[in-house]
């Protein structure tokens, strides 16, 4: 007899670094999920901006089946066709000349930060090693990436952390000017801060950051782990800014839930990752690459990207209409289908209450810090699911508002 699996099983066998909700989803289709009891949920969370094409997308299911019958894994002693096809498409569609394939956003960022330091070491020597990042940024959970990230809570208890990293206020160009120097090897930024509260970068700030990097011979690194692969309304958010980075990282939506990531860079920078300088066991495996290629083919189309813009307007309008009734949000912001609603002062620290009540109503949403409710649904979520989802969200909001 198969042992029954319940939420209590988590508390028995898993390391307690997560506190998952009481429900256990067991199946999904499109933007709807069903739990062990058969209760239906509409998915406005997207696995934290991951399932960009929803659950069990038929093209991706067939791609996985086809590749599974051919080749799962080799090693980086050999290359493979799906990895090369994916890399070629990524370079054709972006600023980049070269690609390093990995398994997660943290791995892609780890590679990016190492490459930035190695490039500076090769060209200017060991003194040019300093990295500037931004407060409230998030770049992953490895020791290097939590140090570059601008949230001290993720570093606490893991010190000593790598040195040579400074943090700046996001969108504060004068402070960035005061911090950058000829010892700076890289400025690392998200075009829109995700975990930091869904805060877009000012267009002028990005342009001046690029100019400062050029003046000081520093690399500009864009973390598009969360904003990339269509979520912003373009394939990558930087494509709306008029400037190009030297290095870009992408993951999350790239595999629609299958672990895959990539670091993209220019040819001149890539040369500093010569044979043996960096590596990964699973990065670039044919299964992951085949799925990511299929995702790119679907997402990078006019129908999907224009649809993201239309759905953005629907989400913002629905949130405003709900807020006009209940007055629980003081700001609604974001790009494409990465949207944040910041709670009013009376609800500071209580964003998770919206998540909790939404689950009770059959809806999955997210938070971005303690004060922002986050929405990151499938890029192709049906309009009927959006309307029904907000009907459920309004019921959740009414419960939160009733406790104010």
TrEMBL record:
Complex and partners: Homodimer.
Protein's gene: argD
Catalysed reaction equations from the record: N(2)-acetyl-L-ornithine + 2-oxoglutarate = N-acetyl-L-glutamate 5-semialdehyde + L-glutamate
One GO cellular component, as annotated: cytoplasm
Lineage: Bacteria, Pseudomonadati, Pseudomonadota, Gammaproteobacteria, Oceanospirillales
NCBIfam families: arg_catab_astC (TIGR03246), argD (TIGR00707), PRK01278.1 (NF002325), PRK05093.1 (NF003468), PRK12381.1 (NF009047)
Keywords in alphabetical order: Amino-acid biosynthesis, Aminotransferase, Arginine biosynthesis, Cytoplasm, Pyridoxal phosphate, Transferase
Pathway annotation from the record: Amino-acid biosynthesis; L-arginine biosynthesis; N(2)-acetyl-L-ornithine from L-glutamate: step 4/4
One of the protein's GO biological processes: L-arginine biosynthetic process
Predominant location category: cytoplasm
Note accompanying the cofactor annotation: Binds 1 pyridoxal phosphate per subunit.
Catalytic activity, EC: 2.6.1.11
Name by which UniProt lists this protein: Acetylornithine aminotransferase
Gene3D superfamilies: Aspartate Aminotransferase, domain 1 (3.90.1150.10), Type I PLP-dependent aspartate aminotransferase-like (Major domain) (3.40.640.10)
Other comments on record: May also have succinyldiaminopimelate aminotransferase activity, thus carrying out the corresponding step in lysine biosynthesis.
MF annotations from Gene Ontology: identical protein binding; N2-acetyl-L-ornithine:2-oxoglutarate 5-aminotransferase activity; pyridoxal phosphate binding
Family: Belongs to the class-III pyridoxal-phosphate-dependent aminotransferase family. ArgD subfamily.
Chain sites annotated for binding N(2)-acetyl-L-ornithine: 141, 280
HAMAP family: ArgD_aminotrans_3
Enzyme class: transferase
PTM annotation (N6-(pyridoxal phosphate)lysine): residues: 252
Matching InterPro entries: Ac/SucOrn_transaminase_bac, AcOrn/SuccOrn_fam, Aminotrans_3, Aminotrans_3_PPA_site, Class-III_PLP-dep_AT, PyrdxlP-dep_Trfase, PyrdxlP-dep_Trfase_major, PyrdxlP-dep_Trfase_small
Cofactor(s) annotated in UniProt: pyridoxal 5'-phosphate
Residues that hold pyridoxal 5'-phosphate according to the record: 105-106, 138, 223-226, 281
Annotated compartments: Cytoplasm
């Amino acid at each position: 007899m198969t042992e029954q699996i319940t939420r209590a099983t988590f508390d028995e066998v898993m390391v307690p670094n997560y506190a998952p909700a009481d429900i256990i989803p067991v199946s999904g289709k499109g933007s709807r999920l069903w739990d062990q009891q058969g209760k239906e949920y509409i998915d406005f969370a997207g696995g934290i901006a991951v399932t960009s094409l929803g659950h069990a997308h038929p093209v991706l299911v067939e791609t996985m089946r086809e590749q599974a019958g051919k080749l799962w894994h080799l090693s980086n002693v050999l290359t493979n066709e799906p990895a090369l096809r994916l890399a070629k498409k990524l370079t054709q569609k972006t600023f980049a000349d070269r690609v390093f394939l990995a398994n997660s956003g943290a791995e892609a960022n780890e590679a990016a930060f190492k490459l930035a330091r190695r490039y500076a070491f090769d060209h200017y020597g060991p003194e040019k090693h300093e990295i500037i990042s931004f407060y409230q940024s998030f770049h992953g959970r490895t020791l290097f990436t939590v140090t570059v990230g601008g949230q001290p809570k993720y570093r606490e208890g893991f010190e000593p952390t790598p040195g040579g990293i400074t943090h700046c206020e996001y969108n504060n160009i004068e402070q960035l000017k005061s911090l950058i120097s000829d010892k700076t090897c890289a400025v690392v930024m998200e075009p829109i801060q995700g975990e930091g509260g869904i805060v877009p970068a000012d267009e002028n700030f990005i342009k001046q950051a690029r100019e400062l990097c050029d003046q000081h011979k520093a690399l500009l690194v864009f973390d598009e782990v969360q904003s990339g692969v269509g979520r912003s309304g373009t394939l990558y958010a930087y494509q709306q800014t008029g400037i190009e980075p030297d290095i870009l990282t992408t993951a999350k939506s790239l595999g629609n839930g299958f672990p895959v990531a990539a670091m993209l860079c220019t040819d001149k920078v890539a040369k500093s990752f010569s044979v043996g300088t960096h590596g990964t066991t699973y990065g670039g495996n044919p299964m992951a690459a085949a799925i990511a290629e299929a995702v790119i083919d679907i997402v990078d189309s006019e129908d999907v990207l224009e649809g993201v813009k239309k759905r953005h307007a629907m989400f913002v309008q629905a949130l405003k209409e709900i807020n006009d009734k209940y007055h629980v949000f003081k700001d609604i912001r974001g790009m494409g289908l990465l949207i944040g609603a910041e709670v009013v002062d009376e609800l500071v620290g209580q964003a998770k209450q919206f998540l909790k009540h939404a689950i009770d109503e059959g809806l999955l949403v997210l938070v971005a810090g303690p004060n922002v409710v986050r929405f990151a649904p499938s890029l192709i979520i049906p309009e009927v699911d959006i309307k029904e989802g907000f009907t459920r969200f309004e019921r959740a909001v009414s419960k939160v508002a009733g406790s104010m």
